[in-house]
Amino acid sequence: MEGYQFQNWALTYSSNPELYFQPTSIEEVRQILELARQRGKKVKVVGGGHSPSDIACTEDFMIRMDKMNKVLEVDKKKRQATVEAGIFLCDLNEELARHGLAMSNLGAVAEVAAAGVIGTGTHNTGIEHGILPTQVVALTLMTAGGEILKCSDSLNEEIFQAARLHLGSLGVILDLTIQCVPAFRLHELQFPSTLTEVLDNLDFHMKKSEYFRFLWFPHTENVRVIYQDRTDKPVQNTSSWFWGYAVGYHLLEFLLWVSTFLPRMVPWINQIFFSLLSSGRDERVDCSHRIFTYECLFKQHVQDWAVPMGKTKEALLQLKAWLENNQNVVAHFPVEVRFARGDNILLSPCFQRDSCYMNIIMYRPYGKEVPRDQYWAAYEEIMQNAGGRPHWAKAHSCTRKDFQRMYPGFQKFCSIREQLDPTGMFLNSYLEKVFF
């Protein structure tokens, strides 16, 4: 298809690929790559388009795998599901439930493709759980030359540890096998606390709840603690449309739009919305995937870095102090703080260490841009000084020099990439900043 315009979900990045493809078979993927080789074109594979950066943009060939979206096999004995790369997690969740299975952890957004989720290192929270790519036990990859590689811990193991977080730079993921668990319900408990209390008792909270995270409201001491734990209790959901959407979405967006003219309103907005929506105690019970996923509200800019677990308190307090000392800068709520187990995936932000993710946000009410450069730069400096690594899907200013310092396995990944794609077919401007 010609004339297609790609835009990411947040409408912060767009591109106009020369040709746009939606293959329905492995052979069609092979033919697209052959055409790209003949014409000397780059190829970019996109999923749901939720990455709030330009990682999915290209002016050459774009492939969307949404027509290759089948569940190929469910092995109930091993509790594994093999799926085509383009399946959206919202569809996979329902299919797994029909087989009495579930993924052990999920990110906030379900309208994302399976291969895209592992491509950028999607994560949730829970110190006993890794990022989502750690649930992948095997995958199939087509290289720039059209070769098909089966990869797992026992087959092409080095490529497997690179491809589980591939950045779209190694080839086209065709299918992947996910290690599942028996379907389960989650009991979610939310309650208010303070930043001081939570940071002073982090170990307690992490042991208390399997999936613990918290939301800090900048310019205040207020925190919303969220526990999610397995339960046999029946489904229970008392959410209110009025408070959740009329107030928590529409009124908030309007007030944040007004604050673009009166920035000093933002601390007041953060305090008021904590009092209105987060100062009480709330509970609900539902199947796991309905608890893990949640509303991301309206369009936004975000950053999300993973720091070593032991740096959590120091880094967050430094961010709080910087905002207090720079009162001309305002920060939207929340700063979301989550945790993940270390792994051995070469480009994982959690490579060889348990980590704390700190996600900051600046909303774009009604699509209007808001000043964020000072906040962004200060946050990045604090994260870098704490030994942090950025989430690959999110916007950041890091270059190859930074990644060489951050990732012990970076050079190994580069060597694998150059071996699989010697002509750079799968590069774009984002990846050129990463690798060159």
CA-based gyration radius: 21 Å
Strand content: 25-35%
Tell me roughly what share of residues is in helical segments. 25-40%
Low-confidence stretches: none
Strand order of the largest sheet: 16-17-13-15-14-19-20-18-21
Q: Kindly name the structural category.
A: alpha+beta
Distance between the termini: 31 Å
Overall morphology: globular
Average pLDDT over all residues: 95
Count all strands and give the number: 21
Model description:
- The mean pLDDT is 95.
- This protein has 436 residues and is an alpha+beta fold.
- The chain has helices at residues 26-39, 89-98, 114-120, 157-163, 195-200, 202-208, 241-259, 265-278, 288-292, 312-325, 373-385, 400-406, 410-420, 429-435, and strands at 6-7, 14-15, 19-21, 43-46, 61-64, 71-75, 80-84, 101-102, 136-142, 148-152, 172-179, 181-182, 185-194, 211-216, 222-231, 236-237, 282-287, 300-308, 335-340, 355-363, 389-390.
